[in-house]
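Hi all, long-time lurker, first post. I run a small reading group and we've been trying to get comfortable going from sequence to structure in the token notation. Rather than ask abstract questions, I figured I'd post a concrete chain and ask someone more experienced to write out its structure so we can walk through it together at our next meeting. Sequence below, copied exactly:
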Amino acid sequence: MPHAMKKLLLLLLTACLTKVSIAQSPVIIHKDAEIAGMVAEVSTDSLKSYINKLVSFGTRNTLSSTTNAQRGIGAARNWILSRFSGFARTSGGRFMAKFDTSTYKPDGKRIDSTLILTNVVGTLKGTDPDDHRIFIISGHMDNMRTSVMDRTGIAPGANDDGSGTAAVIECARIMSKHKFPATIIFVAVCGEEQGLLGAGFMAANAKRDKWDIQAVLNNDIIGSNNTNETNIIGNTRVRVFSEGLSAFELTEQKAAAIRAMGLENDGPSRQLARYVKEVGERYIDNLEVVMIYRPDRFLRGGDHLPYQQQGYAAVRVTEMNENFNHQHQDVRVEKGIQYGDLPEFMDFEYLRKNTGMNLSNLANLAKSPQAPQEVNIAVVALSNSTGLSWKAPAGKAAGYYVLMRETTSPVWQKKIFTTDTSITLPYSKDNYFFAVQAVSAAGNEGLPVVPSVSRKH
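-- Answer (accepted) --
Happy to help. Here is the structure in token form:
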């Protein structure tokens, strides 16, 4: 076969393989060595010690004692603050810990007396004074028995939500020793079982004070591997719940633009869920991050919801296989079945993986550049190519990834790197969704920005 013919066939084969890769091949990006090292530090022993300590307080019901040194929500929050304060002492002044307190009056529902509610907040201040982004990881320290008003009975709360609280503490322990351009907040909230009170208080204050919250990772029930009823067992999958579109400031004009572009599945929280899946699976072996296209489970609600209601991108991380015999249950044996949220029903290796998944996402986000500005897709004439343009972000970016996915794909399928602030691609804008994310010199990519339509050349 002539050389020219061989070359032509090779080019055609390459083109075919390129087209197939868009539809089928996963996006593979190198790992950041510092992040991989932090993930490797996540310890099952540490997580187990946190869970056992939280369980030792007997109950962490929001209405329980705030003055008893050994039992109740007051003792639990004091212990969490002591952990955070210990991390602060070895952080070189970058990590700060505090109580964040609010007062609630009886509501005739889940509060029957005046309540002083306290979140425990650890803040790892970003090193770039011009980077005001904030990334939050949360879990709720409070728990409940069968009755949310039962403030005295034994309520271990090992998994709900000792697991999420333990993940927050472990991430703070490890990450407080490192530097990040952006700020990370680690929060153990209270009042979740009383109606998302602690998260609602913090989200409202953040909006009032104009915090630039870019992402909230809420962890609620992430440490058990099996279900009741169906008896499914497995610790290789974790769910991330996200809303498709935020109702916050969704004007009729914005809704019309979203419908026109088919972006109903591309709201900020849904984009965050895609990011969590990609980065989490990059760093954690034998863990599939399963995106659930719902804000939360039926009949339940979590601490990410108040942030969504304030217009922030927020998702809920929850185990794949829930066992309702060990949630919101009095500790008892009934017809041979052990009920109650006890540590013996937890899988600490699974909790380690889920904690590492959170850590890798927080670290990658906080190390990434700020987002590109004024991202546009040119729509000026009928064309089978796509032109994108944007402005450089505040701060420094080493380059940009242009993301592509077919309109039916749940995840981004192709990344194209460029150091320019515009690009023309030989793919029809009618057939794909696009976005742009800034990338650091170490390869840490920020959250994707979906383009707006531009009618200019």
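A couple of things your group might point at:
Confidence is low (pLDDT under 50) at residues 1-26.
The chain has two domains: 33-367, 372-454.
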